[in-house]
Amino acid sequence: xxxxxxxxxxxxxxxxxxxxxxxxxxxxxxxxxxxxxxxxxxxxxxxxxxxxxxxxxxxxxxxxxxxxxxxxxxxxxxxxxxxxxxxxxxxxxxxxxxxxxxxxxxxxxxxxxxxxxxxxxxxxxxxxxxxxxxxxxxxxxxxxxxxxxxxxxxxxxxxxxxxxxxxxxxxxxxxxxxxxxxxxxxxxxxxxxxxxxxxxxxxxxxxxxxxxxxxxxxxxxxxxxxxxxxxxxxxxxxxxxxxxxxxxxxxxxxxxxxxxxxxxxxxxxxxxxxxxxxxxxxxxxxxxxxxxxxxxxxxxxxxxxxxxxxxxxxxxxxxxxxxxxxxxxxxxxxxxxxxxxxxxxxxxxxxxxxxxxxxxxxxxxxxxxxxxxxxxxxxxxxxxxxxxxxxxxxxxxxxxxxxxxxxxxxxxxxxxxxxxxxxxxxxxxxxxxxxxxxxxxxxxxxxxxxxxxxxxxxxxxxxxxxxxxxxxxxxxxxxxxxxxxxxxxxxxxxxxxxxxxxxxxxxxxxxxxxxxxxxxxxxxxxxxxxxxxxxxxxxxxxxxxxxxxxxxxxxxxxxxxxxxxxxxxxxxxxxxxxxxxxxxxxxxxxxxxxxxxxxxxxxxxxxxxxxxxxxxxxxxxxxxxxxxxxxxxxxxxxxxxxxxxxxxxxxxxxxxxxxxxxxxxxxxxxxxxxxxxxxxxxxxxxxxxxxxxxxxxxxxxxxxxxxxxxxxxxxxxxxxxxxxxxxxxxxxxxxxxxxxxxxxxxxxxxxxxxxxxxxxxxxxxxxxxxxxxxxxxxxxxxxxxxxxxxxxxxxxxxxxxxxxxxxxxxxxxxxxxxxxxxxxxxxxxxxxxxxxxxxxxxxxxxxxxxxxxxxxxxxxxxxxxxxxxxxxxxxxxxxx
Amino acid sequence: xxxxxxxxxxxxxxxxxxxxxxxxxxxxxxxxxxxxxxxxxxxxxxxxxxxxxxxxxxxxxxxxxxxxxxxxxxxxxxxxxxxxxxxxxxxxxxxxxxxxxxxxxxxxxxxx
Lengths: 880, 112
Hints:
The structure holds 2 protein chains of 2 kinds.
Chain A: H1 2-8, H2 10-34, H3 39-50, H4 53-62, H5 68-85, H6 87-116, E1 127-134, E2 139-142, E3 144-145, H7 147-155, E4 160-173, E5 180-187, H8 191-195, E6 201-202, E7 217-220, H9 222-229, E8 239-242, E9 245-252, E10 264-267, E11 285-291, H10 297-314, E12 323-329, H11 331-334, H12 337-371, H13 373-381, H14 386-422, H15 438-465, H16 468-473, H17 486-518, E13 529-533, H18 544-560, E14 564-570, E15 579-585, E16 595-601, H19 605-608, E17 613-616, H20 621-625, E18 630-634, H21 635-642, E19 651-654, E20 668-675, E21 690-694, E22 704-709, H22 717-727, E23 734-738, H23 739-783, H24 785-793, H25 798-831, H26 843-869, H27 873-878
Parallel strand pairs in A: 5-10, 7-9, 16-21, 18-20
Antiparallel strand pairs in A: 1-2, 1-11, 1-12, 3-11, 4-5, 4-11, 6-9, 7-10, 8-9, 13-22, 13-23, 14-22, 15-16, 15-19, 17-20, 18-21, 19-20
Helix pairs in contact in A: 2-3, 2-4, 5-14, 6-12, 6-14, 6-15, 6-23, 12-15, 12-17, 12-23, 13-15, 14-15, 17-23, 17-25, 17-26, 18-22, 23-26, 25-26
Chain B: H1 3-23, E1 28-29, H2 30-41, H3 52-62, E2 65-71, E3 77-83, H4 85-111
Antiparallel strand pairs in B: 1-3, 2-3
């Protein structure tokens, strides 16, 4: 390690250098003394003959590579001082670079993680899901299949390289007061081999687990294990009482395994008894297959259709009149094809963002170079070598690049963290992990650094290449300014402005769409309402009377509690209403099928949600307790099926009730009232016909409660839970929360997230465009200092100069704005299906975007324009 | 390139060769090298004596010379230079080159 010793022992070599030269001088002095010259004179002569000691020392040092480091350090110190003198430039340049790197990396990482690569499953590109489509209504009939159908489909191994199915079921984990309701999935043999994800702890389900008579086992999701069981490794191998069956926990799955959104997976062999428990007696399985390479989706669908045709005769109720099987790529669940197109566009825009960031930095460096042309000419004239100039500029550029890159990486990191933190549940696939995309980060950083180095060095190369006298004489003089590169820079600014207009326009549309969504009248009041699903143990709650025995005392008790205004039983949580059923209205003949939603609820449901009765009345406590066949319908139901007739006293038949395990033989209900419309298919879908009937008519279907509180509803969560325990300790309470929370989660969270991303993107674009306008205007005014001086000397007022500079900026802005708006209108069709309640050609949005952009753009022009007016004609002209 | 610069470049190349030639006789310190060049050339090269040292350091850095600190006859420590194997090769090739050049120049001067 000689080189290392040389590097670390630079002080020693310095001493030796001195000693070597001194030796020479001493010898020479001694020589003169020997000739009889007096010592003083001898030394003087020796020194003169030797020449400048320090100069030669420096030259010697320069031949040693290790000393280059000191020179480099000096270069950096000097560069630091130079940048410090021009702080505004340094900040803007670093910020522009960091923004370009940070924003593009963060946004691209999220898009890539969430939408392009959300799954960690083996060969996920070839995974497909199956759907049955109703050809009459052109919509999805069902994406779930009966076990028989699944088994038939699976036989087609000429099409598929494996197929698995999962059946969702609520699982009550009984552990006294700590009982939990967990989302369970029954899975078919081979599921874990199919997905090819190794477990985090223990083992996955194995073929033997699916055999009839095997010890009941299950595996758990990583997140559930951490959140609910404190990541306790000793829970492995323990026995859990799940839905009354003791099952052994054999493994914790990998963090990114979340198939079916379940919290635990249980084996389900083909021999096991078919019925476990379900609301309406039938079991529908979600089916996933891996399509064989070379088999097209259409081919597979056509082959499956043959099987489906056969089953449509066996299970006529599960098939619409004309149906067709459809095979869809797995990726399309998360990104439907039209949205995917928008995404590609979006990713392209992210690339542009980086490009703009770099272009801005380049521009800024050129501005600076222009203003320093003379400085470099002078330094070259004073003997600075080309190498020296290049090195010093390199140091400056490196400082900028490193600072920009570090800040950019921090921004990217913070951006990804922020997005991951605000990302609502259920927005993206549960398997997705939002993390920084390193390849993109490296690319962005390298692109940024290269830009800085390239454009930072340009002036040094120019200064050392060009002829000194010319440079000293000519610094951007003449009335037109040097035209070289101006065109390119102008195009750049126009492009930046156009891009940011497009982004702003898109963001504004999203904002307006979101505001429109928030203003949708729900038709009921959600504030101060608590809600919880209550999965009742199926063995003891089979009939309506049994349900009544639980709910009736519970509701009475809750209503008597302080702080609770009202309580009701409900079968679904608004604004998603009811169970879909075919309906018949007495005395009405119709050729096509009629459908409606129905809710099983208690008498307080409608008043609790403040849904007003328009006609007739709501049902009474007695009617509920006696399970009377009465129904309340909504306005849409009356309009659609009764038209102008009086509905009160008429009979409606709810056919679906005939299929329930706790069957309702003659499901005919007398209409006793009509209530105002309330949203029942989410906020954006039209309202469906809906009916409310006493919950006691059947023991089937999922149940829950709604509680209206006087003050903060969350404060009463514990009280409500305790009352439920007291009524029946075997009942687990699932996901209790406020109605507002669920409304936000299922309705607003997703658009808000989109808003966030697009808004962030647009903000960055706007900021970068402003920096771009600023840097170009600053450049051109710096070039024209001489011209302005001359104009002012010839009598131009500050206002004239200001108008000239602003006019030039305005031209660029207006051009960019025009192009951007045209592009926005062309592109907005792509996002039209993501918008709600606002046209993609919205004039208000256009106006706002234009105004905002012009304001910001003119502000960016204002700074250099003001500087131009302050040009002192004497100074500007004397520089000649 | 200006005239002065050309002369400096020319001298630098020549000086390197002279140093290599002088050092070839054995370990020798900087002062002795400068004395020998002066004596042999009869003060033809009017260079400041110090300019020898950057050249010595450059040649050492290039690996043509190697140096060692040892005592002189008077007991003072000095830096002694000697030729390396590559230095010797370099000297030979430069001498050959120089000989060819001077022969050619002499031929032209005599016959033209």
